[in-house]
Design goal:
The complex is a heterodimer of chains A (73) and B (613). Chain A is an alpha+beta fold and 73 residues long. Chain A is built from two helices and four strands. Chain A is 37% helix and 32% strand. Chain A has a four-stranded antiparallel β-sheet. In chain A, strand 2 and strand 3 form a beta hairpin. The relative contact order of chain A is 0.30. Chain B has 613 residues and is an alpha+beta fold. A seven-stranded mixed β-sheet of chain B has the order 10-22-21-20-11-18-19, with helices on both faces. A six-stranded antiparallel β-sheet of chain B has the order 2-1-3-9-4-7, with no helix packed on it. Chain B is elongated, with a radius of gyration of 34 Å. Classes of the chains: A alpha+beta (73), B alpha+beta (613).
């Protein structure tokens, strides 16, 4: 499954790159991209673990930039 | 300039801190009281930075921008440079504010280029027109589009006629006329008439949704340069911080003067963020892709933009790409009657056929058609019919031979249609696929751009292919190819090309998908509304015009230049400031400029890619 999420207050391009690298390292993630310009996160991962992976991705994002919020809906 | 809430808050803090700083500079206070006073503007503007540095260090983010700025400022404080500490924070925040405004503005203006998303549709529901979210409308429902409104969904005109402005999709400025039965495409603007349209595709499958998705996802396909910058950024910061440590520790061990050297080293911390590069490089590509989309050129990613820039070989499909893909009458050679009469007889005889050649005869006929009866289809040869009481045969040379007539030899690469009236040879009409008028100029432009090798790959007959090649200026022709053989040709061209250059394949996208996929850059032309082409190609030219091809390459080249300018400029300024700081020739002001000033300049330079034409 591949899904995109909006990121709020992602205001540093370097952080976006760090988040992307961090999320790619989560086990089960086959593809991840954080676009600073589109303020968007795209994750592709296994269907079964998807929700769990998104939660871990949110944690990675928090860790890199505590102001940045992932909008889940 | 409109600021967001967060930006306004930062601006307020900056103004207060700047005011406080000005007052303190004038106060005749000395010693520890002065240090305490300087803490006020320092904390006022810097506390979010300090807080973030704190949380980030807890998260193990050591080389975080906020932390490094905090270290620089605290370092300045410790060696008694109180004013400088406050100024570092103040200038850092001013720079961040500028940067964030510049990025916001660029992002907004790029999205404005792609402002094709419809807000609402007027849906017919129980006899009333209701404003509805386009996403809720199902195929088969009828919508109303008033003059000036955007067409929200793909469909077929049911009632009304109008002109459509397709600029947002194709870059084409001439309006397109539509009437009942014509299909209309979402994203166009209805100019003058009111249209009722039967929706044929749901919003998610519509042209607009496809284009927006494509452009939004384009930032995922990163260019090699972008990937390099990300990798570079990861070691740039630690290196600069290490350099700062060396500057702070090594010289004083031998020569003393700890305070001076620590002071100089703080500059290094200020310039250790690779922000200018990390923002401006992707932004340049984003702008280039956005700017291209305004001309009706959709590029699926920065990697394709990069490949376009190094185009060395261009291979073309013929029919529908170099030619219009429709037949027209190019020559009429009557015998014993005038050409208008010959066309009228032939077109009338063919009036019931919808073969492309019959259609071209009808389109070329200057006189009204007359009724034909006794129609007989002579399969593989042509037809016979009675027109104006005369027995007319229209067809191939073989048909004439069957009638016992002799045709004069005709040298032509087009399709020859022979006509006999009352079993007497009446002449011939030549029907050909015509070259796109802009093709020779577009190919000449490609050549000037350094695309030295142009190749035609076609399934058509060699004579027709060679004639087209001569007209357009294409050097190499491979005719009578089966679709699989086109792929083989492209693969062997890929082997021939010089390293570092890329091979473009330009096709109409209808049955070229495998070839589009195997070229370095697959370009589909005239694909307005064609899903298959949008899917298979790397670059989609929405309208039919070959002129867009050199334009796309020019945009790619200029983007590449701008990216290189930004990389060189940022690194050169940073390196220069580092050297000058180590020598003690420049102060903290220069370091702050090298950090945020350079970012802002690089961002402003990057968005120039949007306006290339």
């Amino acid at each position: 499954m591949k899904k995109s999420f909006k990121l709020q207050d992602l205001d540093c391009a370097n952080c976006a790159a760090k988040m992307e690298n961090g999320i790619r390292k989560i086990p089960g993630v086959t593809y991840a991209a954080v676009s600073f310009l589109a303020q968007k996160l795209t994750i592709e991962a296994d269907d079964g673990q998807f929700d769990d992976i998104v939660r871990q991705a949110a944690a990675v994002i928090k860790k890199v930039d505590s102001d940045c919020q992932i909008i889940l809906n | 300039v409109k600021l967001t809430g967060k930006q306004r808050k930062i601006l307020r803090r900056i103004l207060i801190a700047a005011g406080l700083l000005a007052v303190i500079l004038l106060l005749p206070v000395r010693g520890w009281l002065r240090a305490v006073l300087y803490l006020l503007p320092f904390l006022c503007v810097g506390h979010p930075v300090l807080k973030k540095a704190g949380t980030n260090i807890l998260h193990g983010q050591v080389f975080d921008e906020n932390l490094l700025m905090t270290l620089a400022a605290l370092g300045a404080f410790c060696i008694g440079e109180y004013a400088e500490a406050a100024v570092i924070m103040l200038f850092y925040q001013i720079g961040e504010l500028f940067e964030s405004v510049a990025v916001d503005r660029s992002r907004r203006s790029i999205s404005a280029l792609m402002d094709i998303r419809p807000d609402y549709a007027n849906l017919l529901r129980e006899g009333q027109w209701v404003e509805t979210d386009p996403e809720e409308i199902r195929p088969g429902e009828v919508i109303l589009i008033k003059p000036g409104e955007k067409i929200p969904l793909d469909g077929t005109v049911l009632r009304g006629s109008s002109s459509l402005n397709t600029t947002a999709l194709t870059g084409e400025s001439l309006p397109r006329d539509v009437e009942p039965g014509d299909s209309v495409i979402s994203g166009c603007i209805n100019l003058n008439g009111t249209l009722q349209v039967t929706v044929t595709r749901a919003y998610t499958d519509s042209t607009v949704a496809k284009i927006l998705e494509l452009v939004e996802n384009s930032s995922q396909n990163k260019a090699r340069t972008e990937k390099f910058i990300t990798r570079f950024a990861a070691w740039y910061t630690p290196m600069v911080v290490a350099a700062a440590l060396l500057v702070a520790v090594i010289p004083p061990l031998f020569a003393g003067g700890w305070r001076t050297w620590i002071h100089r080293a703080l500059n290094f911390l200020v310039i250790s963020c690779p922000c200018a590069l990390v923002i401006s490089v992707p932004l340049s590509y984003f702008g280039g892709i956005g700017g291209a989309s305004r001309h009706g050129i959709l590029i699926k990613g920065a990697n394709h933009l990069e490949a376009l820039a190094s185009a060395g070989i261009a291979a073309f499909d013929k029919t529908g790409t170099l030619t219009r893909g429709s037949f027209t009458v190019t020559d009429v050679r009557p015998i014993g009657m005038d050409s208008r009469e010959l066309l009228q007889l032939a077109a009338s005889a063919e009036s019931c056929s919808d073969h492309p050649i019959a259609l071209s005869l009808k389109a070329a006929c200057p006189l009204p058609l007359t009724a034909a009866d006794d129609l007989q289809d002579i399969a593989g040869f042509g037809i016979s019919a009675r027109v104006n009481g005369r027995e007319i045969h229209v067809g191939s040379e073989k048909l004439m031979e069957r009638l016992g007539l002799h045709c004069p030899p005709i040298e032509s690469t087009g399709n020859v249609v022979h006509v006999a009236a009352d079993r007497t040879y009446a002449g011939s009409i030549i029907v050909s696929d015509t070259i796109k008028p802009e093709a020779p100029a577009a190919l000449a432009a490609l050549n000037r751009l350094g695309v030295k090798k142009t190749v035609m790959l076609t399934g058509d007959r060699p004579e027709a292919a060679r004639e087209m090649a001569a007209l357009t200026g294409i050097a190499q022709v491979h005719a009578q190819l089966l679709p699989g053989e086109k792929v083989e040709r492209v693969t062997s061209l890929l082997r021939e090309k010089s390293p570092g250059s890329s091979l473009l394949f330009i096709g109409d996208g209808i049955n070229d998908a495998p070839v589009l996929a195997c070229a370095d850059v697959g370009i589909a032309m005239g694909s307005l509304g064609s899903d298959a082409a949008i899917e298979a190609a790397d670059v989609v030219i929405m309208d039919d015009s070959l002129e867009k091809l050199p334009l796309a390459i020019r945009i790619a080249r200029s983007t590449r230049i701008i990216v290189r300018e930004n990389i060189l400029f940022s690194l050169a300024v940073k390196a220069a400031i580092m050297v000058l700081s180590a020598l003690g020739m420049v102060g903290i002001w220069a370091a702050v400029f090298a950090d945020v000033g350079v970012s802002v300049i690089a961002i402003l330079n990057a968005i120039r890619t949007m306006r290339i034409h």
